[in-house]
Amino acid sequence: MNKGTYIILLKLKNELSFEIRKKKYILNPGIYAYVGSAMKNLHQRVGRHIDYKSGKYKKHWHIDNLLDKGDVLFSFIIPDGIYREEEISKKLSEKFQYIDGFGASDLKVKSNLFVIDDNEKFFLEIKNIIID
């Protein structure tokens, strides 16, 4: 199946500031998790995100601002055909600091981008969300 939800874990080595739709974002160095979905071409979407720095792609999604300067560490692909982006973002927002409004303009969530300050806690939460 080539549709579902994904989570990209990435690292920013330096402070990053950018603007999206007149909203300014300033992100500190650290680890971030981004939640997204693709109801078609899931594997290609994640592959595009991982390969963004190659220069083959134009900026299109919010996450491209981070992909341009950050390093992808890990990606989770959940190819179950179920739209789980909102569910996962809501659960992560209960456990982790989030970047308000980032990547969530079409959803009823606070954000799709989370600050991961405890890797072990993050992976445990992902396990609990996906497997349990």
UniProtKB/TrEMBL annotation:
Record InterPro entries: DUF123 (IPR002837), GIY-YIG_endonuc (IPR000305)
Annotated signal peptide: none
Short name of any one Pfam family annotated for the protein: DUF123
Domain GIY-YIG: start-end pairs: 25-117
Alphabetic keyword roster: Endonuclease, Hydrolase, Nuclease
MF terms in GO: endonuclease activity
PANTHER family recorded: ENDONUCLEASE III
Designated name of the protein: Uri superfamily endonuclease
Organism the protein comes from: Oceanotoga teriensis
